[in-house]
Amino acid sequence: MTETTSLPGDLPAKPDGSIPFRRTIKSYVLRAGRTTLAQAKAYETVGPKYLLPYTAEPMDFARVFDRQAPTVLEIGFGMGEATAHIAGVLPDTNFLCCEVHEPGVGALLKRIGDHQLENIRILRHDAVEVIDNMLPLGSLSGIHIFFPDPWHKTRHHKRRLIQPALVNKLADRLAPSGYLHCATDWQPYAEQMMEVISAEAKLSNSANSANGYAVKPDYRPLTKFENRGLKLGHGVWDLVFLRKA
Q1: H-helix or E-strand spanning residue 242
Q2: I need a surface site. Which of 25, 126, 195, 232 has the fewest CB within 10 A?
């Protein structure tokens, strides 16, 4: 799945020595892909209700979802298969989902329409800006980050989503006993996730296993990609941490 965040950086100075403007290092790439006719139709028919505009103002979940309910943030839902499944099995939970990939957003909108899912809202925007400006402190009951880009090359590790600064922001947005659930099929990234999240003082590991990894929660489905990897002997690592009171 794709995910969004940005890290600080600067453009080279102009000949006169001035810096033209700040640029950011993105942890995501806007992948090539064509929006299908069905996805385009979903944008038109389903989008007006379920797509939210980005605004630099705190979000009122009760107004956005037309009800009072626990709200889970998902960062990077790819084509939305797992998101739609989880929303279906947890109808009493709201899901606020961030994704920048246009075909992926269209695919989830189509799933929303096909399965009449009322508990999903989508922001096609950089998740870090959404966290910083739209999510009040202590407002979330959970956060899902499933299979973010592992950025395999060492020089690209700075682009990985799970970094101390972001984990701190996420911990601040969780209500007491709220959870952060990450999953990856790349062991070096799993190890980095474990190191970074374990270092966040506001979170505690919910797992009882010796290695600290959690048993896959029932709500998270096995994707086709994951099933294929498991058949080939590839591992999958789930991390579930809780916000301390």
Answers
A1: strand 237-243
A2: 232
Tell the burial category of 231 from Cβ atoms under 10 Å away from its Cβ (0-12, 13-18, 19+). Answer: exposed
| Active site (annotated) includes residue 149 | yes
Taken in order of first residue, the domains within the chain and their CATH numbers are: 6-243 (3.40.50.150)
Catalytic residue among 16, 149, 172, 185: 149
**Cβ atoms of residues 117 and 88 within 8 Å:** yes
- Could you tell me if 110 and 46 are in contact, meaning their C-beta atoms sit under 8 angstroms apart? yes
Read off the DSSP letter of residue 217: P
The two tokens of residue 62 are 């009760």
Partner residues linked to 75 by β-bridges: 98
Position 152 scores a pLDDT of 87
The residue type at 144: H
pLDDT of residue 29: 53
Query: What is the rounded CA–CA span in Å between residue 5 and residue 163?
Result: 10
Who's near 175: CB < 8 A, 6+ residues apart? 138, 139, 140, 141, 243
Displacement of CA 244 from its chain's centroid (Å): 21
Band of pLDDT at residue 226, cut at 50, 70 and 90: confident
Look up residue 8 and give its amino acid.
P
β 140-146/120-123 pair status = unpaired
pTM, two decimals, is 0.86
pLDDT digit string (tens) for 29-50? Answer: 555 568 899 999 999 999 999 9
Identity at 87, one-letter amino acid code:
A
- What is the spatial distance between Cα 124 and Cα 30, in angstroms, rounded to a whole number? 12
Percentage helix, strand, coil for the chain under 3-state DSSP, each rounded to 5: 35, 20, 45
